[in-house]
Amino acid sequence: MSQALESMRGQKLLLVASTGGHLSQLHRLAERIEPSPDSLWVTFEKPQSLSLLDGQRRLFIPYISPRDYLGVAKGIRTFRSLLAEERFDAVVSTGAAIALASHLPARRQTRTIYIESVSRFDGPSMTGRILQRVPRIERFAQHPGYDPSRWKQEFSVLDTYARDESWVSTEAPRRIFVTLGTIHPYRFDRLVERLSSVAPSDTEFVWQLGSTPRDDLPGEVHTEMSAAAFSDAALSSDLVVTHAGVGTIMGLLDMKRPILVVPRRKIHNEHVDDHQLQITREVARRGLAVSAEVDEIDSETLVRAAATKVL
User: Which of 114, 180, 212, 250 is surrounded by the fewest CB atoms within 10 Å?
Assistant: First the structure.
């Protein structure tokens, strides 16, 4: 284990993260750290956080979206009150904007640690770029290449996965689970329409659409799903097609599912920026999943993706 993670073992931590990939990463790291049982999680109330943090101390605050500076300002007031009422050995976050709300007031009174998302290969996120200018904050990247005067690099959550070379599948997937995540307010209609057009007509679909509601799709259609329902849909599928959300990818890799990873693109107003291209490239480079741009997907892509999964 890295020195940074080891230094937090058994401590009372304030663990802060947005739902989705940020929370998945922090939860994974917390499993390695094993903080004190009286540590407190602060995030947003979503099916993911309700199930993932069941039985742990948790506080749900109003959602802070990317670039939501008014939400950050309101969050700062919440964290100031929390830190005045309770003492923690360290405040730890994997982002996103909620990290600004927690770390700006915390840095003057306790150890403050920011871990950049594993999806950020080419440099820090907007939150990271802001916090790297703020003194008294320890900053960690999960990939090399960051400015060493501002960032340390000791670990990556992707290091625990490896491709299963014994897995073989040459048939077209009959049951496909499509998950678009829950990031608001960005739609991903291009992926929905592409899959509808290239998949065989007898394909059994299960859709988790998030902010892309549709009433014209075959199969089961859900806006959001509980963790249990999500797992059932993934485990019963021949292939999972997912947007390149790191939390979703990690969860599916944990379940050893064949995955097709498709990045959202800023030019189509599908995300705030193009950072999903980075995690898409990395999972493909490591051989953990097949990746493709929306316009590249065809029936052969689905077959190749179904033939790839991890140990």
Answer: 212
